[in-house]
Design goal:
Length: about 120
């Protein structure tokens, strides 16, 4: 049986959607889910992100997401988003955990803002 090489586009996407810079560069091509708590979301969020707290994802939320578009999932450090990513993958989404989360996003100097438009902070 002939073995096909892995899809290079899939490898590239997975490499980029686990890294904050890669996610930032692809915000127009993906869905970004922020699975932090509401107070964290209000303190600072990425403009294109959709807020779906981890407990909501665990309870089945996410039906509004497009299953044909990759999903990157972010939290504060990458731990909660890892669980949320696994839940979305189990539901058939092409989902990736953003390693380092909002702390890495902030450290990279990438843009995010508070609810009122002021500079965001990682809570």
């Amino acid at each position: 049986m002939e073995r096909r090489p892995a899809d290079p586009n899939m490898e590239t996407m997975s490499e980029h959607l686990t890294d904050v810079q890669g996610v930032y560069e692809r915000l127009d091509e993906i869905q970004l889910v922020d699975c932090r708590e509401l107070y964290e979301w209000h303190a600072g969020r990425i403009d294109q992100a959709v807020h779906l707290p981890l407990n909501a994802i665990m309870a089945g939320a996410g039906a509004d997401l497009d299953p044909s578009t990759p999903v990157a999932v972010i939290c504060r450090t990458g731990n909660r988003s890892e669980l949320a990513t696994m839940m979305l993958q189990a539901r058939g989404f092409e989902a990736y955990n953003v390693e380092g989360g909002m702390e890495a996003w902030d450290a990279a100097g990438l843009p995010f803002a508070a609810e009122d438009g002021s500079p965001g902070r990682v809570a």
